[in-house]
Design brief:
Elements (H helix, E strand, L loop, with lengths): L1 E3 L11 E7 L3 E7 L6 E6 L5 H16 L3 H6 L1 E8 L1 H8 L5 E6 L5 H4 L11 H4 L17 E4 L2 E2 L5 E3 L3 H13 L4 E5 L8 H13 L4 E4 H4 L5 H31 L5 E5 L5 E3 H6 L7 H17 L4 E6 L4 E7 L2 E2 L1 E2 L2 E3 L2 E3 L3 E2 L2 E3 L5 E5 L5 E7 L18 H7 L8 E2 L3 E2 L2 H15 L3 H25 L9 E5 L3 H11 L4 E4 L6 H7 L4 E12 L3 H20 L6 E12 L6 E4 L13 H13 L10 E12 L10 H6 L9 E6 L3 E8 L4 H4 L1 E2 L2 E5 L2 E5 L4 E4 L5 E4 L7
Parallel strand pairs: 2-5, 5-12, 6-7, 6-10, 10-11, 14-26, 26-27, 33-35
Antiparallel strand pairs: 1-29, 2-3, 3-4, 8-9, 12-13, 14-15, 15-16, 15-21, 17-20, 18-19, 22-23, 24-25, 27-38, 28-31, 29-30, 29-31, 32-33, 34-37, 35-36, 37-38
Length: 712
């Protein structure tokens, strides 16, 4: 169903849009102008002052555009920002101290967690050391939790009335102990939120400057633990996120920006700044989501509906799936072994980026990551004081990176610094520098291949039936090996690979997700489903009306269903008719077909019966923020100026191989370049292994055809 948006001002009109992706190592900036090529720029991330790194990337983009910063920002209608600030704040324990008010008798629920908390989010090899498994530190220590006399049951009936005086007294005690924000999370509040809302109002009246968060407002779904943790994380981030975005807006305004700032949400679409300020928990992994959505749009243009999106940056390696043209989502986000009831595009991540630090364990085993050298000092070869060996240092030693290259922010590579960092590790391994570097790359590639297998096979998908999209500054350097390892036959390296997530931000659409937990028998009854759908539709329309967007809004309902007595459910898409009602009759058969498709033929068990666990709605604007004609990289790659002067350098594969170095725009790419070879452009390089072939398509994307086994 498509809703016509309100007659509000357009987001950008014909103005420029900037996509700003702040990663762990670089800030990427893409300038998108409707009908014109994009412009790309990078600058080092500045963890101590994030706004400085962002403004440096904007200045670099202005220089690349050929105009001043004030002229660029003055003609910019919107800035779409993806950031991991909230994630880093949470993992670093730098958020506000949160006090929790919960139903008396359930004070320990957030401390107990789930059975899986010892292994949530861990990699397989981390789970094998059983003696080392520990639950994560509690988000709220026991002394900062207060029980309140109140009780609402599962049917929404008030069993115990709210002790209003007790609420105010508990808030006073928590704030007196040093808590900076408060969360109210009562039992069954997602069914009936009045007690939470009343408690929050009482606290706000007594302490008007304190942030108070209701769990029913952040995550109106079943799951006491996950709903509470989502609310606690949201409260912990509010002050830090507000301060950061305020400083960013101030710096942009001083530089001439008068448009609107939008934030990428984890469900795959932009959200107004005001919504992000109220719910920063929805932005934890907003940067990587931009790359997933850009991959989906690339697949749409190229006629590929099943994609594996892989992003290897400086700090991490991220994997997401696009199935039947849609990015796959998850209802639970895992951060630091903590489950949050926050829906998001499903992304699997490991610490295997270009800046991942290489180490040896007590038994001499080689490990890559998860710790990263970050933006400062970065890999040793950046020449900024780094001493520890990283994946990028190994790539440079193997000849896969141009030692004369200059990366974003004017970073020149220093081969001698890389050798000095690798030498102690090589000596401990009893290997030469090159052999040690080759071992580092093999371990990193194997870890990435394992994550791709996990992300696909655990969801019932065969990676050999997918096209793999490789991006991020280090992605094209490594994709030839890890893609071949999982059996992928075709790789697409986007024209803007090194800033692809920022491109996804600049060309993103508005999207919000709404949901309510409802346990209903199947076949569903329209009289029970209809009121929930209408409530969600009204909320979606209201948010869109206040967003300032023009155009149409697409509403896509869905239902989570499962066989009775199972603990996991599958999401079944629904359809709204012209009256805004969802057709419920087809949902049961659709679920059973989806179940067998996911888990295998004849795995369903119809005799158990079916039940609905949740009803939801995706609300999406049909128009993107900006529609650039083609990327700058694409135009450079598709150049027709003939074959440039041929260059070669030794590159390590199964030994040193004299390999042609092919530059962007080289006419040979149209016909295909066989490996071994290196294709260089912008801030990254594609390593073409022996037996592989690289070509360029009409949009300037590189296509890597894989065959046989390619070994580093």
């Amino acid at each position: 169903m498509v809703d016509q948006g309100p007659p509000a001002a357009a987001l950008t009109g014909a103005l420029t849009t900037l996509g700003l992706d702040m990663g762990g190592t670089f800030v990427d900036c893409v300038v998108a102008r409707p009908g014109l090529p994009t412009v790309e720029a990078k600058a080092p991330t500045t963890p101590d002052d994030p706004v400085s790194g962002i403004m440096a990337a904007v200045r670099a983009a202005a220089a690349a555009t050929g105009i001043g910063v004030r002229a660029l920002l003055g003609g910019t209608g919107a800035i779409v920002h993806g950031t991991t600030l909230g994630l880093n704040t949470l993992l670093g324990g730098d958020g506000a101290r949160v006090g929790l008010l919960t139903t008396r008798g359930h004070e320990d629920a957030i401390l107990i967690g789930r059975v899986r908390q010892k292994v949530a989010g861990l990699r397989p090899h981390e789970m094998t050391r059983v003696a080392d498994l520990r639950k994560p530190p509690p988000l709220v220590p026991r002394q900062d939790i207060e029980g309140i006399h109140e009780r609402i049951d599962a049917a929404g009936q008030v069993v115990v009335r709210l002790d209003e005086a007790g609420v105010v007294a508990a808030a006073d005690r928590l704030l007196g102990r040093g808590c900076e924000a408060l969360v109210v999370a009562f039992l069954w509040s997602h069914v009936r939120p009045e007690h939470e809302q009343r408690a929050a109002a009482l606290i706000a009246r007594a302490h008007p400057t304190v942030h108070v968060v209701c769990s029913s407002a952040v995550a109106p779904v079943i799951g006491e633990y996950e709903r509470t943790t989502a609310a606690v994380v949201n409260a912990a981030l509010l002050a830090r996120f507000s301060g950061y975005l305020g400083r960013l807006q101030g710096a942009l305004g001083e530089a001439g920006f008068a448009g609107r700032v939008w934030i990428m949400g984890m469900t795959g679409g932009v959200m107004p700044l005001e919504a992000a300020l109220a719910s920063p928990v929805e932005t934890l992994r907003s940067g990587p989501v931009g790359g997933i959505m850009a991959s989906a749009r690339t697949g749409e243009r190229l006629g590929r509906s099943s994609l594996i999106a892989t992003d290897m940056g400086g700090t991490s390696f991220d994997v997401g799936l696009i199935v039947d043209g849609e990015a796959q989502h998850a209802d639970i986000t895992v951060v630091g072994q903590v489950d949050l009831a926050t829906p998001a595009v499903a992304i699997r991540s490991i610490g295997a980026g270009g800046g991942s630090v290489v180490s040896l364990d007590e038994l001499g085993g080689l490990h890559v990551g998860p710790r990263s050298a970050g933006a400062f000092p970065g890999p040793a070869c950046y020449g900024r004081g780094g001493r520890e060996p990283t994946v990028t240092d190994a790539d440079l030693m193997l000849g896969r990176l141009d030692p004369r290259a200059v990366l974003g922010g004017g970073i020149s590579l220093d081969p001698e610094a890389a050798r000095q960092a690798l030498a102690p590790l090589a000596e401990r391994l009893g290997l030469g520098l090159v052999e040690a570097a080759g071992g580092i790359v093999r371990v990193a590639d194997a870890q990435m291949a394992d994550l791709v297998r996990t992300a696909t096979l655990e969801r019932g998908h065969d990676p050999r039936q997918f096209t793999l999209v490789a991006y991020g500054g280090a992605g094209p350097v490594h994709v030839g090996r890890f893609a071949a390892d999982v059996g992928v036959r075709e790789v697409i390296v986007p024209a803007s690979a090194s800033v692809f997530s920022a491109l996804g931000l600049a060309t993103a659409r508005y999207r919000r997700t709404y949901r309510r937990s409802r346990r209903l028998p199947v076949p569903l009854v329209a009289a029970l489903v209809g009121p929930v759908v209408r409530e969600l539709t009204a909320q979606a329309r209201g948010d869109f009306a206040t967003s300032g967007l023009d155009g149409a809004l697409a509403l896509a309902p869905w239902v989570d269903m499962r066989y009775r007595r199972q603990t996991h459910q599958l999401r079944v898409p629904g359809v709204l008719d012209d009256r805004g009602e969802m057709d419920v009759e087809a949902l049961g058969p659709r679920f059973e077909a989806l179940y067998e498709r996911t888990f295998g033929h004849d795995t369903g068990y119809a005799a158990a019966g079916l039940e609905c666990t949740a009803i939801g709605l995706h609300a999406m604007a049909l128009a993107a923020v900006a529609e650039p004609q083609a990327t700058g990289s694409a135009r450079r790659r598709r150049g027709t100026g003939g074959t440039p002067r041929e260059r070669h350098r030794p590159v390590w594969f199964d030994g040193w191989r004299d390999s042609p170095i092919v530059e962007a725009g080289d006419a040979r790419l149209v016909g295909g370049v066989d490996g071994p070879a290196i294709v260089e452009w912008g801030a990254t390089s594609l390593v073409v292994h022996p037996g592989q072939c690289a070509t360029v398509d009409d949009e300037g994307n590189l296509r890597l055809q894989l065959s046989g086994e390619a070994r580093p």
